[in-house]
What we know:
This protein has helices at 15-18, 30-43, 51-56, 62-65, 70-75, 102-114, 125-133, 194-208, 222-230, 241-250, 278-291, 293-300, and strands at residues 2-5, 77-82, 85-86, 90-92, 99-100, 117-122, 139-140, 154-169, 186-190, 215-219, 236-240, 255-272. The chain has 318 residues and is of the alpha/beta class. The protein starts with a strand and ends in an 18-residue tail after the last helix. The longest helix has 15 residues, at 194-208. 35% of the residues lie in helices and 23% in strands. It folds into two domains: 2-162 and 265-306, Periplasmic binding protein-like II (D-Maltodextrin-Binding Protein, domain 2), CATH 3.40.190.10; 164-264, Periplasmic binding protein-like II (D-Maltodextrin-Binding Protein, domain 2, 3-Layer(aba) Sandwich), CATH 3.40.190. The protein is elongated and about 60 Å long. α6 (102-114) crosses α11 (278-291). The strands form three sheets. The protein has a five-stranded mixed sheet with strand order 10-9-11-8-12, sandwiched between helices. Strands 6-2-7 form a three-stranded parallel sheet, sandwiched between helices.
Amino acid sequence: MRSRRTxxxxxxxxxxxxxxxxCGSSSSSSSSASATATSSAAAATSTATSSAAAxxxxxxDAAVVTLVPAAIKSKGTLTVAADASYAPNExxxxxxxxxxxxxxxxxxxxxxxxxxxxxVVNQTFDSIIPGLASGKYDLGASSxxxxxxxxxxxxxxxxxxxxxxxxTKASGGTAVSGLAVLCGKTVSVEKGTTEQTDxxxxxxxxxxxxxxxxxxxxxxDQNGANLALSSGRAQLSMADSPVAAYQVKQSHxxxxxxxxxxxxxxxxxxxxxxxxLAPSVLAAVKALMANGSxxxxxxxxxxxAGAITDPKINGATS
Length: 318
């Protein structure tokens, strides 16, 4: 799980003739593109650059605003990092530059409640947590699985849950039931994800049992992993369950899900430790759930199955 993003895409509009590369956009189909563009523009309405202005900004929640650290209030803008290759969670919209998707919409809605503008920037997945640790970004909203290991570097506010799914070519693909049967197979994944970690660990187990290992092809983004699958370099690809389902849907019959989803775990919004931002983000998430915006955003992107009702800080179980 990108972790799952670990530290994933674009369903690639129509998989671009099975190339599964962004085609100028990292994922949405042309039918959803116009709706996405419209929602992006609407979501971009957040304001306020000082605490006083923030509390009076339309959409700002006074109880949330009071929790926003002074350093963030003084900037007036929340810089949010996302790897925009993981539709429908985060991907590049039809204009070829704007990050759209579930996480982008949630970030903008959270920022509005906090009385802040939101700037969502596209970054490679494995660079986001280091960027948070160095103070380059204020928030990471990129389908991060909240894990104990990651919590050593950043804090998380959990807001969603997902598992990992396998997908393969619909015609002539490779059927698997789970991780244990990956021995001798070639799998494409996004670099830095839990999928990469899981496939690599399984390869070691296979070898220890005297079986062929797992060939893990890791790419900078999910589009590369998809292309490896569509071109035949990989037999399978792995991604977070909502992302895998979306990519299969957008492949127009080129891909199919195989096996069972495993490892359901929470997604967390990643936050630099000692920034003091986590309590205000948690309060904003709870407010979005209470006012119905959370459900509307998940419904819009077809990922409502991952909704949770009890957000928390650092809720990883493993």
